[in-house]
């Protein structure tokens, strides 16, 4: 009996323990999370209706329009205006007398080689045939020309033989006399700009491109203005780009009016208008810059003749100046011959007669054309153009 009771007790205990384990395991399992609460939805503010305010009106002090500060109450901002470009002031060119002194000194420095070479050869103790040939070569190298060189050498030989003695002063004086005979001292070298019976004087400037023709025209205007003359410039070089602008710039610097036409237009028409305006304005001189034409272009040279004929419908030309580059030497004579056939050249302007030039071209070109050198340019400065003086030129060649 006791055994049965003990078995029942053990069974009850076992059942109790098993029951407790089952209950404990159930308690350890996590409970599912509670369902989320419904979010609070805030209704958007209602759109204001017509005539309503967006917010609930608040009691605020009202201001009249007079009490409201308008924007931009500070100092007004100044608007910067574009700078005004002032016209260049009119220059006062250097007087002719002043520039002659300066140019004479410059010519003396640059051209002494020819004179010194001749004096050195003439000062030799024995003047044999070889020495006289060297003298001829020196003159030819200086572009004096074949015929003038032969004439000068013959006269020098005769006078040296007659004199017998050859001191440096005697030789310098002898050479000066003979060179002056070649250059010529009796020729009228005045640039004719003052006709007696009318106004204005008409001057046409011709030459090949690159000789400084347009620049010479502008510099000649400065010479005339310096002498108290009034000038109109005619930009008849319509073939070269910017030629008219270049000439107009020269004119503006001295207060000279420039007549111009369209690029590639009729140069004869521009020349005609320039003379007409010069007459209407009552100026003293009209300077006409023509196109720099190649002497091998027959059509262009014919055009130059047309310009001359059209201008002469107003009045005869007073001067036709041929501009030559002194550095071209004998090649410039070819150009001179052709221009002389088309228009009647009355005077020559030699430009670039500086240290790179050969002074003998003065003799050669005068002998070739039979017209005098009237103006010379010795530099690139605005006032580096002056009337040609034979005495000053020869003195510069042989050294004073």
From TrEMBL:
Q: Which Gene3D superfamilies match?
A: P-loop containing nucleotide triphosphate hydrolases, Signal recognition particle SRP54, nucleotide-binding domain
Enumerate the catalysed reactions.
Answer: GTP + H2O = GDP + phosphate + H(+)
Q: Which residues bind GTP?
A: 207-214, 289-293, 351-354
GO molecular function ontology, one term from the record: GTPase activity
UniProt keyword list: Cell membrane, Cytoplasm, GTP-binding, Hydrolase, Membrane, Nucleotide-binding, Receptor
Assigned EC number: 3.6.5.4
Q: Does the keyword Cytoplasm apply?
A: yes
Region (Disordered): which ranges? 25-91
Where is this gene product found?
Cell membrane; Cytoplasm
Gene Ontology terms: biological process: SRP-dependent cotranslational protein targeting to membrane
Q: Which family does it belong to?
A: Belongs to the GTP-binding SRP family. FtsY subfamily.
Q: What does this protein do?
A: Involved in targeting and insertion of nascent membrane proteins into the cytoplasmic membrane. Acts as a receptor for the complex formed by the signal recognition particle (SRP) and the ribosome-nascent chain (RNC).
Instruction: Give the quaternary structure.
Output: Part of the signal recognition particle protein translocation system, which is composed of SRP and FtsY.
What name does the UniProt record give this protein? Signal recognition particle receptor FtsY
Q: Whose protein is this, by species?
A: Streptomyces aurantiogriseus
| Protein's gene | ftsY
């Amino acid at each position: 009996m006791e055994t049965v009771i003990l078995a029942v007790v053990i069974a009850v205990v076992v059942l109790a323990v098993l029951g407790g384990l089952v209950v404990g395991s159930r308690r350890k399992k996590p409970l599912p999370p509670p369902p989320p609460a419904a979010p609070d939805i805030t209704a958007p503010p209602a759109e204001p209706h017509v005539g309503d305010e967006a917010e609930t009106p608040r009691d605020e002090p009202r201001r009249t329009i007079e009490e409201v500060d308008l924007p931009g109450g500070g100092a007004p901002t100044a608007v910067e205006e574009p700078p005004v470009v002032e016209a260049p002031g009119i220059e006062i060119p250097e007087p002719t007398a002043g520039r002659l002194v300066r140019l004479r000194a410059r010519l003396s420095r640059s051209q002494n080689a020819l004179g010194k070479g001749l004096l050195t050869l003439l000062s030799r103790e024995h003047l044999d045939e070889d020495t006289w040939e060297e003298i001829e070569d020196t003159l030819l190298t200086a572009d004096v020309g074949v015929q003038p060189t032969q004439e000068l050498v013959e006269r020098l030989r005769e006078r040296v033989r007659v004199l017998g003695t050859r001191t440096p002063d005697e030789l310098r004086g002898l050479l000066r006399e003979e060179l002056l005979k070649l250059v010529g001292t009796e020729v009228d070298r005045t640039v004719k700009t003052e006709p007696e019976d009318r106004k204005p004087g008409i001057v046409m400037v011709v030459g090949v491109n690159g000789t400084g023709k347009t620049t010479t025209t502008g510099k000649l205007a400065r010479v005339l203005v310096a002498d108290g003359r009034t000038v109109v410039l005619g930009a008849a070089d319509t073939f070269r780009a910017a030629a008219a602008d270049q000439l107009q710039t020269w004119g503006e610097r001295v207060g000279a009016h420039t007549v111009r036409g369209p690029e590639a237009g009729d140069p004869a028409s521009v020349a005609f208008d320039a003379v007409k305006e010069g007459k209407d304005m009552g100026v003293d001189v009209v300077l006409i810059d023509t196109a720099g034409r190649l002497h091998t272009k027959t059509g262009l040279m014919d055009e130059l003749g047309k310009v001359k004929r059209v201008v002469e419908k107003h009045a005869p030309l007073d001067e036709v100046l041929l501009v030559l580059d002194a550095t071209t030497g004998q090649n410039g004579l070819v150009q001179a011959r052709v221009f002389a056939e088309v228009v009647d050249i009355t005077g020559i302007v030699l430009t670039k007669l500086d240290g790179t030039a050969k002074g003998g071209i003065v003799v050669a070109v005068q002998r070739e054309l039979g017209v005098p050198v009237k103006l010379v340019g010795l530099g690139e400065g605005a006032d580096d153009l002056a009337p040609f003086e034979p005495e000053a030129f020869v003195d510069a060649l042989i050294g004073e």
